[in-house]
Design brief:
With 185 residues, the protein is α+β, with helices and mostly antiparallel strands. It has one domain (7-137). The chain is built from 6 helices and 7 strands, in the order αβαββαββββααα. It has a 5-stranded antiparallel β-sheet. The protein has a two-stranded antiparallel ribbon with strand order 6-7. The radius of gyration is 22 Å and the shape is globular. The structure holds 2-acetamido-2-deoxy-beta-D-glucopyranose and zinc ion (3 copies). The site of one zinc ion (ZN) has 5 residues, from loops. Residues 1-21 form the signal peptide. Residues 146-155 have a biased composition (Basic and acidic residues). Residues 145-185 are annotated as: Disordered.
Length: 185
């Protein structure tokens, strides 16, 4: 179980306030976070002056909730198990759990931590809920591993099998017992 040192700080940061220094400028809202400095949010201009060669993540908003682009965050974090959404033609995920009405009956997939209904058969609604899952249960991980050379070796498949394929249908057949035709035929 391993949580990057900047993650909790990122999730508890307040974004979209007006920059004290650049508040009058067009891009003066604090929507950036630096993984190297792990300080407060800052604006576009602060980035150019103070975080030039740092790893910076841009926070975006969807209905007043903070989101990050999957293409940015997946370089630094294993986001598997977290629900993603396509918003304004970019794939994003939510930083934190968001208040919700009680989910209706018959919802198939729920966040393991907060119970929000999910679109896909995944475990968490947000990075925040995955963080709780990692810390509390230890059965999720943020660590990106198996990158680079190891992936090309081909041994990876033995260690991390992909979704197991269903057993061949003949395995279920028993001699002498007639079996039903498959559904939908
Ligand atoms: C992770 O652990 C929690 C608590 O034991 C459990 O409720 C949850 O189903 C587990 N998830 C998986 C995918 O193992
Ligand atoms: Zn600024
Ligand atoms: Zn920095
Ligand atoms: Zn959740």
């Amino acid at each position: 179980m391993s949580v990057p040192p900047w993650l909790e700080s990122l999730l508890s940061s307040a974004f979209f306030s007006v920059c004290q220094t650049h508040g009058d400028a067009a891009r003066g809202e604090c929507n950036m976070y630096c993984l190297d400095c792990q300080g407060d949010a800052f604006c576009y201009y602060c980035r150019s002056s103070k975080h030039k060669d740092h790893q910076v993540i841009q926070i975006r908003r969807s209905s007043y909730h903070d989101v990050v682009r999957v293409s940015e965050i997946q370089k630094v974090l294993d986001i598997s198990g977290v629900q993603t959404y396509v918003i304004n033609s970019a794939r994003v995920l939510f930083l934190n759990e968001r208040p919700q009405p009680k989910s209706g009956k018959g919802v198939a997939h729920l966040c393991e931590i907060c119970g929000r209904s999910l679109l896909d058969p995944l475990r968490f609604c947000s990075l925040g809920c995955k963080l709780v899952g990692v810390k509390r249960h230890g059965n999720a991980s943020f660590t990106i591993d198996g990158r680079g050379e190891e992936l090309r070796e081909g041994t990876q498949q033995d260690i991390y099998p992909s979704t197991p394929s269903p057993p061949p249908s003949s395995a279920r057949r028993r001699k002498g017992i007639p079996h039903r035709a498959p559904f939908g035929s």
